[in-house]
Amino acid sequence: MAVGAFVFKQYLHVTGFKEAEFDTALFEKLVLNEVTKKMIKNLTEMFIRDTANPSSHDDTRIKLTSVHRAVELKEEGKTWSADFVRGKGEGLTILLHGKPGVGKTYTAECIADYTKRPLLALTCSDVGVDPTQVERSLIHWFDMAQNWGAIVLIVEADVFMEERQPQDLTRNHLVAGFLRSLEYFKGIVFLTTNRVGTFDEAFISRIHVSIYYGEFSADQRIKVWDTFFEKLELDRESSMRILPATKDYIQSPELQALSWNGREIRNAFQVAVALAEAQGQRDEKGRVLIKKEHIKATVDMSKEFSDYLKRVHKFDMNKKAAVMGIRNDAYDSENGSSSNSFKK
User: Fold this and answer.
1) Which residues form the AAA+ ATPase domain (predicted)?
2) φ and ψ at 60, to 5 degrees?
3) Calpha distance 135→179 (Å, rounded)
């Protein structure tokens, strides 16, 4: 017996199935402006409430016993659409743009858990790059997502949304096919990109909500560090201990000057933990000690690599992105202005 499931990347035994578990508190750990977080939460909650199966308003979870059923939409339960063409423009498209590692993909993951919905994450390897294949694949995935009540995440969407050129017919067909598929999808789609400056003009008017992810402030970076500290202490409370000096070090000018994003902080802390385990220094209870020196080792490596890249490109990655017209990392979303803080 075959079971259709978009989450399958390999063959599994059906005896291993269990009801999905969602961490609804995950959204609170997201490091993002509180006003923006509230807006995303309200929009998705309202959209899901309006499009939910009337028989399942009390429980929006997708049951394994009912995956074969499509979500039935009644006319009065549909989200209102301003488009006069029936079946068009009934979805919610949210663009998340900014530099890498600032929480764009994590936002979609948090929303999926918060709303207790499956997350269908797609990349160009799932959709393809051939124009005819792209439209066919998207229709397939969007139909599957609608039947499951899933939230769709298209990672690095710029692959499909780059500006068209008169002489590049293949690119033009690719963009047109993506536009058509997106416009007729009735669910929630998150698009992430760190190359928003390359987008085709036609996409801008089809995006309902656009959210800019700027560079972390010093306080936000400390919050990200604290989140990873808390996770380790929760997961390895009996076998690992973070020394107070280690926690103090994350506020040091040396570390803050690196302007690490969330992914870089995660990687650095993971390396620090591995170094601590390899050295094996323990306290009186036998717990591995994570010291300031373990994080500092990753800081020194990062400094050296960043310096190398600056020598290659003649300026840092933020400046490179601006020069290439990919994005403006110096933009201040709160004041609506750009600073001249690029490092040469």
Assistant:
1) 90-215
2) -85, 5
3) 9
CA dihedral of 198, 200, 201, 205, whole degrees rounded to 10: -110
- pTM greater than 0.85: no
Helix or strand run (H / E) with residue 242: strand 240-242
pLDDT in tens, 110-123: 999 999 999 999 98
Q: What is the CATH number of the domain that holds 208?
A: 3.40.50.300
Which stretch of DSSP H or E encloses residue 190? strand 188-193
- Containing domain of residue 233, as a range? 218-332
Q: Are residues 203 and 298 in the same domain?
A: no
Mean pLDDT of the chain: 82
Residue 299 belongs to some domain of the structure: yes
Q: Judge if 180 and 227 occupy the same domain.
A: no
Residue with tokens 């220094």: 281
The phi and psi torsions of 337 (rounded to 5 degrees) equal: -140, 165
